[in-house]
Amino acid sequence: MSPASRSVRAPGVLRGTLLWVLVVLSCNTVEVPGDAEACAGLQCTAGTCFSNAGQPMCRCGPWEAAAELTCSVATFRQPDDHGGSPDSATVLTLPMSPREARISEGTRVEMWDRDLFAVTVPERGLYAFSCTRLTLAECRVRLLDAEGRSRHVLAASEGARESWFATLTEGTWYFEVSGGASAGRYNYQLVSLGTDDHGDTFEEATVLEEGSRGPFSVRLSHIFDQDMFVFRSQVGHGYRFICEAPPGPGLWMELGFDDFAFVDQASGATGAPLALSLGATSVHTWRVSIVADSGPFPVEARCRFEDLGRDEHGDTLETATPVTAGVPVGLTLQSRDDVDVFSFAGEAGHVYSVRTDGAGPWSAQVVDGTGANVASSTTDRLRARVGTAGTHYLRIQGGPDWEHTFSLTLVDAGVDDHGDSPQTATVITPGTTVTGRFETPADTDAIAFLAEPGGIYLATYAPSERLSFNPRGVAGSLTLGEGRHLFGGWEAGPVTMMFQPRNDAEGFSLHLEQVAVDDHADHSAEAQQVRLPVDISGVVQTAIDTDVFSVRLEEGRRYRLGLDTGPLAVTLVAPGGGLSRPVSGVLVPVFTGPHLMMLTGASGLAQVPWRVTLQAE
User: Fold this and answer.
1) Measured distance CA(445)–CA(606) in Å, rounded
2) 373 and 365 Cβ atoms separated by less than 8 Å
3) Residue 122, Cβ neighbours under 10 Å: how many?
4) Starting at the edge strand that comes first in sequence, how are the strands of the sheet with 534-541 ordered?
């Protein structure tokens, strides 16, 4: 056969062969199951089921990929009660009560059940998702957004109940529950905590506009709720952020210039106002954050933000504002560290104080022209005595952060009204009333009088509970209480009463009077010597008085003693110091020699007459 003949016949043979093959195949066709048939009765752990050459498989979509899920055909020992993808998630409608669910056990290794719950949020708000373990050993919860991305949430535990707190914006959100390597039953619940009134981050913070604002409400819904504010400072301005909450919840506030560093903090749970303070030295954006570290929740607070403007008074002696005694001046302490300095012409010997119109008190100090301290206290207690005439300076600082604006008046109290020692004391006479003023908290006012021999004097002073009273001199003294003091003159000489303030006393009043003249000596050295037979009388004049006389008695001899002494106590002192309490009747001494008889016991200002008779039998 020629080559040309072969080239004509070959295509015919090939076509015949192909036709025969097609006929044979058409007689033995195998139909591959589709997705519906292959996936019937099956469920995916996540994703969508499809047929792969008739075999069921699960395919992850973009949401599952973003959530980093493994998509496989679910084979659990118990039916899966909640799906793991958005199209099979259990939709939650609020409000809801706790519901029971189960993390099912897989039939092969690495087969993990995940329960997905969906909620559609109409507007930004705070939510708490809780998982209470029943037989489930571990609760793991993730928050996923509409694209499947995991979002950070904070959790708190209370026994078997764990709660995850989140701020959700408008849209659909997902809570995913898994058990780690465990399976079992649990209760779940989603609770709306209300709208979030202020953002939790620097980017979402409420902006405080320039100037003052407030009061405004701050609502902390749970322990992780943080309300944040930002403001822009101006050079030289002072700023205060002040909040007040009911007693009980622990409020914590912080002022900083970025997400970490802070320049001021305040905390408390007493219900007293809390304040943050800033004296700005530059233009900067600042943040204020508020949290509650204890409940009960929600914690409601009222806050205000104040731009206190520029510092109106200098902080140094060189930049001090001149003031005149008696003329009020207004001031604002722009920050906790702000010091306002005022200058005044001090007169030698004069005492200066300050009067404020406001709550206070504030720290106060007076210094001389060299900056040396003259007096330092608080505005309500400052008393500064100027030693040398010349310019002096008043420095004001501190005080309650929420009472930072007030008026101040420098008060010239003049010279000291009374001397501070017995040598410089003001001398008065009985029947005189005198008053005094404490120019400083350490001031001492000395008042003196000349006591006569045997004179008994009563000093009455007020306010006794706020005074320190210290007598000195030749007289005996006795306190009767309630600002009354008795003096008994032993001999002629000065008696000085030293007064000092206690409990912020500003002054005192004193009245002195002579109430009696003693008729008998008070001491053995001056005792009257009497001879038998004795018939002697007198008067014990006030509680400070003691009447004493002496008589010689013989050991073993019988004497007839008569006592007409009323409530007075009678004491017999034998030679050598032995004491006895004699009564009317027979007296038999056990020693020979001078015996002292003492009569005491009058009450207060009472004057008690007495008579004693004594004779040998």
Assistant:
1) 31
2) yes
3) 7
4) 534-541, 607-616, 559-564, 585-587
How many other C-beta atoms lie within 10 A of the C-beta of residue 185?
14
The answer to whether 277 touches 239, Cβ cutoff 8 Å, is yes
CB 551 within 8 Å of CB 614: yes
Residue ranges with strand state E in 184-284:
184-194, 206-208, 213-220, 227-232, 237-244, 251-256, 262-268, 274-279
Q: What distance, in Å, lies between the first and last C-alpha atoms of the chain?
A: 196
408, 356 in Cβ contact below 8 A?
yes
Q: What is the mean pLDDT of each run of 10 residues along the chain (617 residues)?
A: 38 45 48 88 91 92 95 89 94 96 88 94 93 96 97 92 93 96 95 88 88 84 91 92 92 84 89 91 93 88 92 94 96 90 95 86 94 92 90 90 86 89 94 91 90 95 95 89 91 93 92 96 92 97 96 96 97 95 95 96 96 96
Collapse the DSSP code of 41 into the 3-class scheme (helix H, G, I; strand E, B; otherwise coil) and give the result: coil
The beta-strand segments (E) located in 2-81 are 48-52, 55-59
434 DSSP β-pair partners? 510
Max Cα-Cα span within the chain: 196
This prediction has a pTM of 0.59
In whole angstroms, how far apart are CA 125 and each of 168, 197, 215? Answer: 6, 8, 23
Residue type, 521: A
Compute the residue count for the chain: 617
Task: Give strand ranges (E) for 105-226.
Answer: 114-121, 125-133, 140-144, 150-151, 154-158, 161-168, 171-178, 184-194, 206-208, 213-220
Residue with tokens 């034998």: 574
